[in-house]
Write a structure and sequence with these properties.
Elements: H1 3-36, H2 40-56, H3 58-68, H4 70-94, H5 96-110, H6 113-124, H7 130-158, H8 161-182, H9 195-204, H10 216-219, H11 223-253, H12 258-288, H13 293-314, H14 321-336, H15 346-349, H16 354-383, H17 387-407
Length: 415
């Protein structure tokens, strides 16, 4: 197996672990809230507090990865969030404020994940393989979500909710052993890579260079970067709101028993896992068919955002559990097609700065985790209705689609 495929596999596992540790609280919070007497607003605060830490380390994680190497940044970041995952039950029983601080600490660790692996891929993955590699790695978050939504209820029922954090948090330490032994930040530093693979990567990867000083004045005024940032914000608004609230919607809004919540909640993310991979394959296929790169990026993004927005706007029109879950699944299938769009656009416009650019846009993308998740709790507390949440998310997706269509580019902006 080529070394770059081994690195992709371990990176997918890192994203998988990132999301099992992040998503388990979406299920566990149901018995926690019942046991500790939390209302919707307090649930929203716990869910959104993670993103306070998450937003802080985005740019720093990307910059450090571009400058000093993604291996160390991602490796130690994963250990940090694993420790805070294990500490979650202790914090919950010690006081609400301490729990908020632990969730913030967990966010600090996870905040480096996506900037770090995008920086790694800019140096390891040839251009013609990027769509599939990025799609497969992004699908790790949906695979982790599916796993957490299925396994967490089983752990809660047969052990207790505390063990969902103890067990999931321990997985990261096992991963770190293999990551430390098998990964280097640059292909030329890997002891087991063949000369043939090294030559192929150096000839076809977006960059083989370390980042220079970031041109911040240019960055903050660059329209193509803002196009990616706005798309990232809008995509994550949908992702984070439903990661936090979908299990509760199924339990309270649709009246499904707790033991079945995980199985229904995981179905949309199973579709995301499948179609995020297909979206990357679709983007690479169009490039091989000689479609212009900008056309591919905009087409994939429009299919993803537009299709998801329509489906989300239709959710309140359906009443049965089957029909509601089905239309949400369809929306996630559309959204997965965007993996050939904005999310891969960073290394088009600034190859050397891919990690830093991802850190900037993912920082913007973390904002919905704070405001979107918390506002959703306020809406529920005030109206006791889920319809407004779906309409708001649909509107955000349409806005992201239009903004990206108007301002996206594939021309190098910073090199």
């Amino acid at each position: 197996m080529p070394v770059r495929f081994q690195i992709i596999f371990l990176t997918i596992l890192a994203v998988f672990i990132c999301y099992i540790d992040r998503v388990n609280i979406s299920i566990a919070i149901i018995p926690i809230a019942k046991e500790l007497g939390w209302n919707y607003e307090r649930i929203g605060l716990v869910s959104s507090s993670f993103f306070i830490g998450y937003i802080v380390t985005q740019i720093l994680g990307g910059y450090l990865s571009d400058k000093f190497g993604a291996k160390l940044v991602l490796g130690y970041g994963l250990i940090i969030w694993s420790v805070f995952t294990i500490l979650t039950p202790i914090a919950a029983y010690s006081g609400f404020t301490l729990l908020i601080l632990v969730r913030i600490g967990m966010g600090l660790g996870e905040g480096i994940t996506f900037p770090a692996w995008h920086s790694l891929y800019a140096r390891w993955i040839p251009i013609e393989e990027r769509g599939r590699a990025v799609g497969a790695t992004n699908s790790g978050l949906f695979l982790g979500t599916v796993f957490a939504l299925i396994i967490t209820p089983i752990i809660v029922i047969h052990l207790s909710w505390e063990w969902a954090f103890y067990l999931f948090g321990s997985v990261g330490f096992l991963w770190f052993i293999f990551w430390n032994r098998m990964v280097t930040s640059s292909p030329k530093d890997h002891p087991r890579i063949t000369k043939q693979e090294l030559l192929f990567i150096e000839k076809n990867a977006p960059t083989t260079q370390e980042a220079e000083k970031l041109p911040w004045k240019i960055l903050i005024t660059n329209k193509p970067l803002w196009a990616i940032g706005v798309a990232h914000f809008c995509s994550n608004y949908s992702l984070f709101v439903f990661l936090s609230w979908l299990p509760l919607f199924i339990n309270k809004g649709l009246g499904v028993e707790f033991s079945s919540v995980g199985y229904l909640a995981m179905l949309p993310y199973l579709f995301s896992f499948i179609f995020t991979n297909l979206g990357g394959i679709f983007g690479d296929f169009l490039l091989k068919r000689k479609f212009k790169l900008l056309v591919v990026r905009k087409l994939c993004n429009t299919i993803g955002f537009g299709g998801a927005g329509i489906c989300l706007a239709l959710v309140p029109s359906f009443e049965t559990v089957t029909s509601v879950i089905a239309i949400i699944c369809l929306g996630n299938a559309f959204a997965g097609m965007a993996s050939g769009g904005f999310i891969i656009n960073h290394s088009d416009i600034g190859p050397k700065y891919t990690g830093s650019l991802m850190g900037i846009t993912n920082m913007l993308g973390a904002i919905p985790g704070i405001i979107g998740v918390y506002i959703s709790g306020l809406i529920l507390e005030a109206t006791n209705s889920w319809d407004a949440i779906f309409y708001v998310v649909a509107g955000v997706m349409f806005f992201g689609m239009i903004f990206y269509l108007l301002f996206a580019s594939v021309e190098k902006q910073f090199d």
